[in-house]
Amino acid sequence: MIDIHTHTTCSDGTDSPLALVKKAASSGITVLGLADHDTTSGWAEAIAALHGTMKLALGSEVSCLTVEGTSVHMLGLLFDGENQPLQQLLSDSRDTRIPRMKKMIENLQNAGYDITLDDVQAVTPEGATVGRPHLADALVAKRIVSRRDEAFAELLHNESPYYVSHFAPTPEDSIRAIRAAGGVAVIAHPFASKRGQIITPETFESLVAAGLNGIEVFHRDQSEDERNQLIEVARALDLVITGSSDYHGTGKMNQLGENTTAQAEWERLESMADQRRVVSR
């Protein structure tokens, strides 16, 4: 099984890189993609934990905003982790997360919710890239909501009055940075309409012009109709079709390997990187 989109405690997952690698190996994953939000800080621990025949496809899920203000996530995989322009792009995104979090908390407080930055920091793993999932966990800890997904559905979705956007590159800029670092770019869950605003099929033309390699088609947040639309887009534009779990540990219901990428599609995607960077023992 090839699952190229997962998260750890280095961003908003609940499993450490070590635990994720062990769990993936025991689950029968053959290629595991580690793509924490806007960071590569979990790579070293994941590599050290690797054993057996499972392979690692290292990367990051880059937070983006279109010029119209629509949130887009871009999976960058198999890039040079030492590439400074890409690392600077990731760093700039991380640096804006605390001011954004403070503003979201202020919005919630003004509406009468008993939540503070200290509450959020108390549930955020050391070194993790702070984000909305940690705010959701703090709301659960304070018994304001019962589950993380409930927090998103009721309070933290993109159309919520409490939502605050943050600095983010455009999808096109992210793709160009990923490709310049030798990696491949796959747009994550682009038609997941229940998350909020989504891009249109016409958007893909500029993404392809920037160097987009693939589309994450098989994802739990995309309906069968949305998946079929994306398959048509991918075939029309000659893009790789991927599927992934978007696993976050106990933070979400997503299970490792619940959606996967076909071997032939993975081989095609891997061949588009400027050199072989899949890690194996």
Key attributes of the depicted protein:
single chain; about 280 residues; alpha/beta; TIM Barrel; DNA polymerase, domain 1; 2 domains; seven-stranded mixed sheet; 5'-3' DNA exonuclease activity; PHP_dom; 5'-3' RNA exonuclease activity; Pol/histidinol_Pase-like; PHP_domain
Order of adjacent strands in the largest pleated sheet: 1-2-3-4-5-6-7
**CATH top level assignment of the largest domain:** Alpha Beta
Coarse morphology: globular
Radius of gyration: 18 Å
Structural class: alpha/beta
Tell me about this structure.
By secondary structure, the protein is α/β, with parallel strands linked by helices. It folds into two domains: 2-94 and 167-271, Metal-dependent hydrolases (TIM Barrel, Alpha-Beta Barrel); 98-156, DNA polymerase, domain 1 (Orthogonal Bundle). Helix content is 38%, strand content 15%. The chain is built from eleven helices and seven strands. It has helices spanning 17-26, 43-49, 84-95, 97-110, 117-122, 132-141, 148-156, 171-180, 204-210, 224-237, 263-271, and strands spanning 2-6, 31-34, 55-65, 71-77, 184-188, 214-218, 240-243. The chain has a seven-stranded mixed beta sheet with strand order 1-2-3-4-5-6-7. Helix 2 (43-49) links the parallel strand 2 and strand 3 (55-65). The longest helix has 14 residues, at 97-110. It is globular, with a radius of gyration of 18 Å. The model has no long low-confidence stretch (mean pLDDT 94). InterPro entries: PHP_dom (IPR004013), PHP_domain (IPR052018), Pol/His_phosphatase_N (IPR003141), Pol/histidinol_Pase-like (IPR016195). Residues 2-66 form the Polymerase/histidinol phosphatase N-terminal domain.
